Amino acid sequence: MIKFADLKLDPKVLKAVVEAGYETPTPIQEQAIPHALEGRDVLGIAQTGTGKTASFTLPLITRLARGRARARMPRSLVLAPTRELAAQVAENFDIYAKYTKLTKALLIGGVSFGEQDKLIDRGVDVLIATPGRLLDHFERGKLLLTGVEVMVVDEADRMLDMGFIPDIERIFNLTPFTRQTFFYSATMAPEIERITNMFLSNPARVEVARQATTSETIEQTLYEFKPSRKDRTFAEKRDVLRRLILSEGDACTNAIIFCNRKVDVDVLAKSLKQHGFDAAPIHGDLDQSVRTRTLDGFRDGTLKYLIASDVAARGLDIPAVSHVFNFDVPSHAEDYVHRIGRTGRAGRKGKAFTIASPSDDKYLAAIEHMLQRPLPRGEAPTLDPQLDSGDEAQRPARSRTVRSRRTEKPADKPAEMAAESPVKSEAPAKAKPEPKPESTVAQPVVAEAAPSEAVDSAPARRHEPRGGKRDEMVENHDDRRDDRRDNRRDGGRGRNRDDNSQVVGMGDHVPDFLLRAFKTL
Ligand code: AMP
Q: Which of these, 184, 260, 388, 412, could form a disulfide with 328 (CB 3.0-4.6 Å)?
């Protein structure tokens, strides 16, 4: 078996790796590091949890250990699709480079340009950034990419989902063609293949654990339930979720609960809080400071339930998560693997529960087809007979409007909400006293805006005014990019939308006056 000491890493890097407690390289590290140290481009097909971050960070540090950074000219560039992932790469860098004198800067939205500019001015060895923020710095003339010796693109498939590929192409073109490139993606979509053909030079292709693989240490269970009425699905699902959490008792030390839509992340978090659960939401519409605080709380155990969207939680490395709940069946089968991979990490045991209603059948079939086996079924808990649609009224205006067309009675009386509280006597370990119901109407969330609002493009940004509110605009722009992906996943192109969000239009009927020719006078 290969050891880290066999990999020709810089002794200072080796020392840090040993201190991090790693005994042997993971398969992606074992395959990628030797090629990377030989100076070859690497095309890594690997998902999060495989040790891929160290597979490019360790050779990167080894390569940069000699040489010095020059002002405004970073020597290497690591691009990640989200702020959280970029921050995570930066944390990894800090661990592995602790015995070197290498410097880094993290360019992500939500941090003021001024602070980041200062670091770049001094000269950094490693620049870790999200693509939009990097280009913003570049356009402000604060950054030169002509000194980049190594460029890393992490999670390229997510970049594709989020519409970042044009930015990535542009950044590639701003760096010297002599650079070494490490390019990582969980899947090889044709567009990703195209980019790698264009910008990688004779890469060593290394591939580990196919996407459809779920860890053996994760116990997966599917709970199918049939709502009593379609318009009560959301409220009844919340009841099922609460009962599942409670039925796990102390075994559930913490959990990530996934929803498909950001707006539901908010509503579910609020509802769980109202029921005494220690829950907080995380998604792309929240302020960076709030996101960081929430994640830190979840990592250090002061927050027990993290309600998340796929984008926000993707790739996050939180070692001890006892449970993952799929409040919604993911509409993209590969997200199932990513979601449940948040638990059962590093050899620990984990449980992944998925709640499905009949409308999820086709997504479920896709997941089971990908896994090539059916998910084990569990018996869904019996619903509280007194449960009423109560806080269903918290859903955003758009959904309510559609439902009201379908003659739903609005029911947002606090008394009904109280009836929805858990009936089991054992409270969650850190349950807080049940608070009074909050305002029953949630604020509309940006992600729910018309698709055109969520779409953003680099050229548009370039025409934005400079200075003044620019930071704020860029920040929003970053978030909108997160949204863009969520919108697409939610069916932005007309796919996968839930019934409540369908646009009601004219169907095939075109009014006669629209078909008449104009008469010139
Ligand atoms: P990643 O796929 O980069 O997100 O890494 C997933 C987790 O594996 C992180 O917590 C790393 O700290 C950990 N890790 C990376 N390499 C190793 C290794 N060789 N041995 C044990 N754990 C590792």
A: 260
